[in-house]
Every structure is written in structure tokens, then in C-alpha cells.
Description:
By secondary structure, this protein is an alpha+beta fold. Helix content is 23%, strand content 48%. A hairpin with a 6-residue loop joins strand 5 and strand 6 (109-119).
Amino acid sequence: xxxxxxxxxxxxxxxxxxxxxxxxxxxxxxxxxxxxxxxxxxxxxxxxxxxxxxxxxxxxxxxxxxxxxxxxxxxxxxxxxxxxxxxxxxxxxxxxxxxxxxxxxxxxxxxxxxxxxxxx
Length: 120
């Protein structure tokens, strides 16, 4: 189920559909960008994206591991991410990421994500 959610989220990002991508996040999501900026909540994330300068980019996250705790309804995901400039098939930037998922609402949603840029 988490893999399916991740795939849908990647598709939304590639289409620059920020509203759809936000449906995969908890309202109080915490995100640390690859450059170390901490974003708190969906509203702040959407503002951060709208205020971004430079060429439009999308990100693809590729999971290497997902571990689910059925008792706490939490899951750990880790993998690699790549950032692409709109219209390009070659990654401009990338690195490693981790995500915490929660199923409190009955649907797996991202509660926090940490991205670290490791290559440019």
C-alpha cells in the first residue's frame, strides 16, 4: 500500500500537481529539504513551492526499504531521490531520503520526510 502511495505521489510531482501531492501528506507533515530547510505543515510546503525561484523541478523518490509496524500503524521508508528540471530526463540533483508514514486515518500518509543532497 505504501509503495502504491509513493508511486502516486511521484506521478503527482512529475505533473506539478501540488494539490494532489498534498493529499499524500498529513496536515502537520514535517519536511527537511535536501539543503536543510525545515518545512512544517502542508500550508507551509505549498507556500515554499510557490515561492521557489529558478526552473520548475520535480522529484522522484525510489524506495530501497519499507518497514511497517502494524501495532503502532507507523512505517519507515528509506531510499534515493532525484530532482529533474521540467522537460529533462537527466537528474540535476539527488541523494538519500527517509520517510515516516502513519495510518492513523485509515490511509497511509507521510508524517515526515528527510532529504539529504549528496550529488549535484
